[in-house]
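Problem: given the chain below (588 residues), write out its structure.
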Amino acid sequence: MCGIAGLAGPDAARHEGTVAAMGLAQHHRGPDGTRHLASADARAVLSMNTLLIVDRTAQPGPYRDQATGVLLTFNGEIYNYRQQAAAWGIELEPGETDAHLVLRAFAKLGPACLDGLDGMFALAAYDPREGRLFLARDRLGEKPLYWRLDGGRLAFASEVTTLTGYGTAPLVVRPEMLSIETPTGVETPFQGIQLLAPATLLTFDVATGSLDQRTWWRLEDCEPWPGDYNAALARFSVLLADRVPLRAPGGDFALLLSGGLDSSVLAYLMRPPVCVTVRYPGQDRLDESRTAAIVARDIGAELLVIEPTVEDFTRSLPEIMAALDYPMGNASTFSEHMAYRAIAERGLRVVVGGLGPDEFLMGYVRHALVLFGPDAVLAAGLEAYRPLASKLLHAAGDPLGPAEAIVRLVLRGTDLDGRVRELVADALVRAGGDLARGLTLADLATAWRPLVMTSDKLASAFALERRSPFLARELVEFSYRLPVEHKIADPAAGKRILRDAAKALGLPSEVWGSRDKLGFASPVPSWLSGPLEGWATAHITTALAEAPSSLRPLLEGGLRPGGRFDRTRMQALMAAAWFSDQRVRAAA
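Solution.
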């Protein structure tokens, strides 16, 4: 985890002080130094907040290639950088890191080097030989990168609020914030500022001001797996054993251990010295700490148990919203925040989590509801999900089509402009008729962005690097290629191939035999209708008094009573806290 920022344009060097201020605005992302460099032709200035992980004695960025003048600012980790250095004939000196490999690769190969990189990254490279700035983001968007074009100059940063400090950016409440709690695609709630899409290369010609974007990797281009299940399980197990341990840092690190399948597999493969779990006393439905304790004991790790309180939430809400930049719609936000705080207090720099298998191996109950239907899911013992299953019931009594079923299950409000339906329909088309792959692509287009963004932003607020080993390129591509029956054969037990791999690894049956998914869920929605009802109402009402008309429906929804699992009130409170944070920033 680092932070990057910069500016490119004909007179960029005149704005060196502005870029320096942009870097300082996100200094928490890199406690090992915030520096900036100007290109030799004075048409680009790049800044970097450095967090040293691979080599604590390495030079902080940004970096300049002495032979070509190419500049690089870099956020992330390239796990195969030594192999790629050998493949490309690039020599690395002692003490040089993955960033130096990327710098020399850009100088030698240009953007063509991106396909060889296996890791998470957001980067900016300026090549004075061409007068072009290149922005690029990793395949699945693990690292954020925002940009804006203004007055013939292109500015970029790791945090959107860094760019709002560069120039005014009026608030824009996107319709998707009402339908799925967060903007989709490349939109942000700030006019003129966009998020660079995952696996996208942006090229900016400084002399002409022209801009081009292209996608450099597509998951749907992967061909279906031709082998049988036993061959698939063998290949999947090899990939797990080879790719996951590569994501472990050289020193101490912590694992977010919920007690579920995904994080437990990581525990056995990576052997972290510290595991962190979150539980809420009196909330047995959300408590997997007993299983987490079994796993930690088996691998000889210390288990740190965090028990957040109602008071922790009220104190943490402003910090959470300041870190997120804008509402994200992730139900685990509070639990993650408290876990990251505890890990940072231990002096650790890297935290590992289990994102990925749910999306690529049909791990969510909503996947089973679409694939098998609500009756089969409820009959399989998942009665607790009846409120979700009821979304698929309608007056006609006929089964819903896959697209409409997916939309109903992901919506948390109204789809006023049909944007969510368009995204789901496009995902199914790109999947070429395979419903399981269509579900994965629909997740990536709707629910995925807030998951990876909250993980990065909340961890970065504590100067932590968040890693997600299951997002290794070959694991992701192989999982996507598998036929649906390799992913889920029982409505109550998705991730079939991962469960069988976990069983072969010797994980306890409490892990691979579990038929429910909890993760780091929290009781915050029920708190907001219970002990925090008055507090939440006051915050929402205060924001409502001065909020723009576009934000009012979102806030007003939080003043209506909701059920135990209804996140409408939580969504409204987050929006109120965000609006209050923006007013404070504007007044500063």
